[in-house]
Amino acid sequence: MERTVQRTLRVLSQLEQHDPDLFEIRFDLMKSTSSIAEIRRATDLPMIATSRRRGEGGFFLGTEEARMKTLIQAVQDGFDYVDVELNTKNVNNFVRHLEQDGARAIVSYHNEKSTPELPALESILKREKDAGADVCKIVTTAKIYADNLRCLAFLNKHARKTRLVCFAMGRLGMPSRVLSPIFGAYFTFASSGVGKETAAGQVPVNSLKDFYNEFGIA
To answer: What's the longest Cα–Cα distance across the chain?
Structure first.
């Protein structure tokens, strides 16, 4: 989540030594997105375009029209995925638009206050599927360590039939972030470095890769 395209390019170059599987580019704070195509050309790895509103845990303060325009531009420039929030107005239409332009939609839900009970998680997942999600993403907040178990159990139940990302944010949610791929998550997130977290509880990519290598699950 850098403020300029050039700073983003420098970070991408630094991160490739860690052999990531994909990159998420957060456009929340980027001052100008006129040269997004340079970011896409910087790597052959898949890329997710995201611009998160404050109400969803992000930092974007512009209009909804401007936010959508940036995401569509990213698709036109070759980004593989777009993260679109479940409560986005006319989310079904926007997902169809993305797919027609050749991108895959990650339909996401974020709860910065708690981890809902299992029936609520089931309902959220159904709504994401109904919206046409290629990848369903449910991110909660851990208030107690047991919330990790709820996310991982839910993930383990559904990941065999659904491309699903599910974990809890916050310091207490770190176990579910790290362990979610073991329980079938389509992917998990790491920060580009200490102090570069885009959400609470992210582990730096080098630390996460070291953990996976140590346990033979890289």
So the answer is: 45
Residue 56 CB contacts under 8 Å (≥ 6 apart), including other chains: 85, 87, 108, 110
Identify whether 88 is part of a domain.
yes
Q: Kindly report the CATH number assigned to the domain that includes residue 27.
A: 3.20.20.70
Number of structural domains in the chain: 1
Q: What is the pLDDT of residue 218?
A: 65
Residue-level pLDDT at 54: 86
3-state secondary structure of 71: helix
Show which residues are catalytic. Answer: 110, 137
Integer-rounded Cα radius of gyration of the chain: 16
Residues of the chain with pLDDT under 70: 218
200, part of any domain = no
What tokens does 187 get?
A: 């992917």
Task: Give the number of other CB atoms < 10 A from CB of residue 113.
Answer: 8
Q: Which domain holds residue 151?
A: 5-193
Residue matched to tokens 């169809």: 96
Is 204 a member of any domain? Answer: no
Q: What CA–CA distance (Å, rounded) separates 49 from 51? A: 7
